[in-house]
Write a structure and sequence with these properties.
Radius of gyration: 14 Å
Largest sheet: 4 strands, mixed
Number of strands: 4
Number of helices: 4
Oligomer: single chain
Helix content: 40-55%
Strand order of the largest sheet: 1-2-3-4
Length: 114
């Protein structure tokens, strides 16, 4: 399974389970030619931004950034930097390598009342 297929499964489950909340993708991980890459950079694409964002605050966090990786996937340096920035600004950040870990993280985040 590749990251795209895994992410599609995650989004499908989320939209079925939690239709009242907004989860959206940040499509910045695909290979592009130099012209398209330059245009996207001028439009505001930033290296390292996580794949998905859950636009819902809970008692601890302003929202949830989700990085999708397959089993052997590792964060790039720009992804690690983005994680630190996000957490410094009051957002949670998780890495999900399976649909099961995604479901667990989402349920825990949404139901966190502490």
């Amino acid at each position: 399974m590749n990251e795209s297929h895994l992410q599609q499964q995650m989004v499908k489950w989320f939209r079925y389970k939690y239709p009242e909340y907004t989860l959206f993708a940040i499509p910045n991980g695909h290979k592009r030619n130099a012209i398209t890459g330059a245009i996207l950079k001028r439009e505001g694409v930033v290296a390292g931004v996580a794949d998905l964002f859950l636009m819902k605050a809970n008692k601890k966090w302003n929202g949830l950034w989700i990085e999708v990786k397959i089993d052997k996937g590792r964060q790039s340096e720009s992804q690690k930097e983005f994680e630190l920035k996000a957490m410094r600004e009051g957002y949670n950040y998780v890495i999900c390598k399976s649909i099961d870990s995604f479901i667990e993280e989402i349920n825990e985040y949404i139901n966190d009342n502490d």
